[in-house]
C-alpha cells in the first residue's frame, strides 16, 4: 500500500500502486474500462458482476497489464451476496482500499406514474441498495484496518436532472448521489472518502437502445457542448482520480462527465 506520508510527484499521486480495488459491473462497458485503467495505474482488482464468463475475459486483460485479478460473480441486488462478496474480495486481495459501485440497471422506459412495483424494486435493489450494502462492508473493512479508503459511486446525469421515461432510474441515481454525500460526511473523520461520477450518454450495452434511436440520440448529442456521446474509456480516468491520492482532499462531490450538456442548460 502507498504510504500517505511519502512525498510524491504530482503525477505519482494519480498512481494506485499496491491498492486493492473492487469494481462492480466490471465485465463490460464503463466498469471494464475503470478496472483496466485502475490496473494500469497499479491496482489489484476484484471483478464483480453476475456472469463469470465476461469477468474472466476482463481478468485476463488485467493480468496482461501485470496486475492481479480475482473474479467474484455476484448479483448486486441481493444483500447477502453483496456482503459476502466484499468480505471475500478483501480476504483474497489481502485488504481493501477502493470500492467502485458501478453495476447498474435501467430495464425499461416507462412513465413513473405507470411503473410497476417490481420494476421499481429491481431498479432500487441494484442501483441503490446494492451500493449501500457494499459501502457498509467496505467501511467496516476500512475502519478495522485503519485504511483511508476511497468509495467511488457511478451515478448519472439522470440523478442530477430529469429524463422522462427514466424516472425510477433518475430517482435511484439521485439517491446514490445523496448516499455518497452522507457517507462522505459520516466517514470523513476516519479518513475515508466517498465521491460520485455522473456520466452523460456513453456507448455501452445499457445505452444501446438510446444510441440507436435517432429521436433520443440526436437531441441528446445536440445538447452536449462537445456534440457527441462518450466512450467508456473517457469515464475511467475520473474513477482513477477519485480512487487515488490525487483527490485526497475531495469528498462528497459528484464529477459530471457529460460533454458539457449542463453547461448549455
Ligand atoms: N451508458 C451510459 O450512457 C451511462 C450513463 C450514465 C450512467 N451510467 C451508469 O454506468 C454504470 C455502468 O453502466 P454501463 O453503461 O457500463 O452498462 P453495461 O455496459 O450494460 O454494463 C453493466 C455492468 O453491470 C453488470 N450488472 C448489471 N446488473 C447487475 C447486477 N444485478 N448485479 C451485478 N452486476 C450487474 C453487468 O454485468 P452482468 O450482466 O454480468 O451482471 C455489466 O458488467 C451503471 O451504473 C449506469 O447506470 C451509464
Bulk shape: globular
What is the CATH architecture assignment?
3-Layer(aba) Sandwich
Q: Given this structure, which CATH class is correct? A: Alpha Beta
SSE series: EHEHEHEHEHEHHHEH
Bound molecules: NADP nicotinamide-adenine-dinucleotide phosphate
Number of helices: 9
Q: So, the CATH homologous superfamily?
A: NAD(P)-binding Rossmann-like Domain
Let me know the largest β-sheet: 7 strands, parallel
CATH topology: Rossmann fold
What does this structure look like?
This protein is α/β, with parallel strands linked by helices and 265 residues long. The protein has one domain (12-202, 232-256): 3-Layer(aba) Sandwich (Rossmann fold). The chain has helices at 29-40, 52-64, 79-93, 117-145, 167-187, 208-211, 214-223, 233-243, 261-264; strands at 20-24, 44-49, 69-73, 98-101, 150-154, 193-199, 254-257. Helix 1 (29-40) packs across helix 8, helix 3 packs parallel to helix 4 (117-145) and helix 4 (117-145) runs parallel beside helix 5. The structure holds NADP nicotinamide-adenine-dinucleotide phosphate. NADP nicotinamide-adenine-dinucleotide phosphate binds next to helix 1. Residues 24-31, 49-51, 54, 74-77, 102-105, 126, 154, 156, 199, 201-202, 204-207 line the site of NADP nicotinamide-adenine-dinucleotide phosphate.
